[in-house]
Amino acid sequence: MSRELIYIRCIQVIISINTLIFTYSIIQARKGNIGLHRRLNTFALTTTFFGIAGLLGTLVLGWNYQSLTTPERLLFHRYLSCPLAVVLPFTAYFGWKGKRRPHLVCVSIAIPLWIGVLITGLIFF
């Protein structure tokens, strides 16, 4: 198994676990447990961004992920993951600042993108 594939598998596990954490976090927010919601999201976002930073670092080092899937699938995955990488920090910022309305708008954009990235990441790689 190539180092690229091993790293992708690690990211898949992290993102899958974070999906469960985010889901539980949303349930907690709906119950009014905002403190736990924030702590869970902070953990999940931190591990997600470390995974993204690691992926970008390996690309800079010349790792080749294109051999793991077709160019079309990789492009489709990037169409979802790039906007998600932009929306997530705004979602977190508005949540941390207590700006509920913009936070919920960002959440409504982030959730479908997150699900798309999760599905394409698991199926395409």
Low-confidence blocks of residues: none
Overall pLDDT: 95
* Backbone CA Rg: 15 Å
Query: Helix tally?
Result: 4
Order of helices and strands: HHHH
Biggest sheet features: none
Please provide the count of β strands: 0
Q: How many structural domains can be distinguished in the coordinates?
A: 1
Overall helicity: over 70%
The computed structural class is mainly alpha
Q: What is the general shape?
A: elongated
The N- to C-terminal Cα distance equals 13 Å
> Which range does the strand content fall in?
under 5%
Quick recap of the structure?
With 125 residues, this protein is mainly α. It has one domain. Helices cover 85% and strands 0% of the residues.
Features:
single chain, 125 residues, mainly alpha
What does this structure look like?
This protein has 125 residues and is mainly α. It has one domain (3-124). 85% of the residues lie in helices and 0% in strands. The chain contains four helices and no strands. It has helices at 3-30, 34-60, 71-96, 100-124. Helix 1 runs antiparallel to helix 2 (34-60). The longest helix is centred in the N-terminal third of the chain and has 28 residues, at 3-30. The chain is elongated.
SSE layout:
Elements: H1 3-30, H2 34-60, H3 71-96, H4 100-124
Helix pairs in contact: 1-2, 1-4, 2-3, 3-4
